[in-house]
Design goal:
The structure holds 2 protein chains of 2 kinds. Chain A has a single domain, classed as Dynein light chain 2a, cytoplasmic (Beta-Lactamase, 2-Layer Sandwich), CATH 3.30.450. Chain A contains 5 helices and 5 strands. Chain A has a 5-stranded antiparallel β-sheet, sandwiched between helices. The longest helix of chain A has 23 residues. Chain A is globular. Chain B is built from 5 helices and 8 strands. Chain B has a single domain, classed as Rossmann fold (3-Layer(aba) Sandwich), CATH 3.40.50.300. By secondary structure, chain B is α/β, with parallel strands linked by helices. In chain B, α4 links the parallel β7 and β8. In chain B, strands 1, 2, 3, 4, 5, 6, 7 and 8 form an 8-stranded mixed β-sheet that branches. Classes of the chains: A alpha+beta, B alpha/beta. The interface between A and B is large, with 45 and 55 residues. Bound molecules: guanosine-5'-triphosphate and magnesium ion.
């Protein structure tokens, strides 16, 4: 199972999953890469753009907080919504120190409920530790991945994008 | 930071366009966006003010082909060049894998180029990077204009590390891909994470 499949699988065992039917969830690294996702956000460019913006927003807010010395309560969230739609971000916790959870919701009668259960959902994944595992794997080896990349290989990469 | 996913056989890298205000950073990634086609075309996101000046960043996710079995994805960012956006530039530089310094070749812009480059060095140092070790490519932009500094002068004043450099006229698309391909190559060769 790859990470996305694991995420789908573990989501199935979350007791309150029906609450999240109309919610898209992006699991992001600190620099905005999408590790996995749930819900209807299209995989690929759309998810990546959302990830980059969400984390950019987070970093900007954090920089503001630092300047005005807001006390860090260790589990801050970031929020943008009207009465029924919007999104919020949960920051990394000690258990999963490098991962942001972002939740995008629409047409909710009670968005507050989603927020309450979002932390539970995150904790559900924390216990399973599936997100930690890939993290260490990604940075474990020190040698170079590709050596002597040729002009031709680079041209190939770009020709695929129609360039 | 680059992210190598061995399960999915994917590499993700972050490339940042840096340089003085109005130098042509946004124009560069706008050109890349225009030329990308098909399913691999990501959305360009421009966070700018009403005068098209970048306010926070531009972002373009680029889905490229495969290299040695790994699917490659580059995230292109531009910083806002105006002097008072220093705090934003610092944020965008976080976890950068490769840099394109877009210099404005116009004679009167030399000081702005120097100031921007000094800022870059300082911001990188603060984050524990060494500018001489990070993949960096220079673009001498706006070569189409009449009153430009000679390439030799630009090299001598700005390119202290002997990094690869290209002349450009980003408005016409000239030099845009040469620069991007070069930094892509350097970034890929710099990727750690070994095959598991
Ligand atoms: N003549 C000429 N004009 C250019 C060239 N590249 C960009 N420009 C113009 O220069 C102006 C500024 O370009 P941008 O790409 O917005 O500059 P920027 O570096 O993103 O500026 P900031 O967002 O303020 O940092 C625009 O009017 C461009 O059309 C070039 O190669 N030649
Ligand atoms: Mg710009």
């Amino acid at each position: 199972m790859n990470l996305q499949e694991k995420i789908n699988y573990h989501f199935k065992s979350f007791p309150h999953r029906e609450l999240f039917q109309e919610v898209s969830i992006l699991i992001l690294t600190k620099d905005g890469q999408v590790l996995g996702q749930l819900g209807k956000v299209k995989e690929g460019a759309q998810a990546q753009s959302l990830g980059a913006l969400m984390v950019g927003m987070w970093q900007a807010s954090e920089a503001v907080a630092e300047m005005i010395k807001v006390k860090d309560n260790k589990d801050t969230g970031l929020n943008y919504q009207d009465s029924s739609s919007g999104f919020f971000l949960l920051q990394p916790t000690e258990k999963n120190p490098k991962i942001f959870w972002s939740f995008i919701f629409e047409n909710q009668v009670n968005p507050g409920k989603i927020k309450n259960y979002a932390r539970q959902l995150r904790a559900h994944f924390n216990e399973l530790e599936i997100l930690k595992e890939t993290k260490s794997k990604a940075t474990s080896k020190e040698e170079f991945l590709f050596e002597n990349v040729t002009e031709e290989e680079v041209d190939n990469l770009f020709s695929f994008a129609g360039i | 930071m680059s992210f190598v996913n061995h399960n999915k056989k994917e590499v993700n890298c972050k490339i940042v366009y840096y340089g003085p205000g109005l130098g042509g950073k946004t124009t560069n990634i706008q050109h890349v966006y225009k030329k990308t086609s098909g399913e691999n075309r990501g959305n360009i996101i421009k966070l700018n003010n009403e005068n098209e000046r970048t306010l926070f960043f531009d972002f373009l996710p680029l889905e490229l082909g495969e290299i040695r079995g790994y699917k490659t994805r580059f995230h292109l960012y531009t910083v806002p060049g105006q002097v008072f956006y220093e705090a934003s530039r610092k944020l965008i530089l976080r976890a950068v894998d490769g840099l394109i310094f877009v210099a404005d070749s116009q004679l009167e812009k030399m000081d702005a180029n120097i100031e921007s480059l000094e800022g870059l060095e300082k911001n990188l140092t603060e984050q524990g990077y060494d500018i001489s070790k990070i993949p960096l490519v220079f673009q001498w932009n706006k070569r189409d204009l009449p009153n430009v500094t000679s390439v030799e002068d630009l090299e001598q004043k700005l390119n202290k590390w002997g990094s690869p450099s290209f002349e450009g006229a980003a408005v016409n698309g000239d030099g845009v891909f040469e620069t991007l391909k070069e930094v892509s190559k350097l970034v890929l060769m710099n990727l750690k994470g070994g095959l598991s």
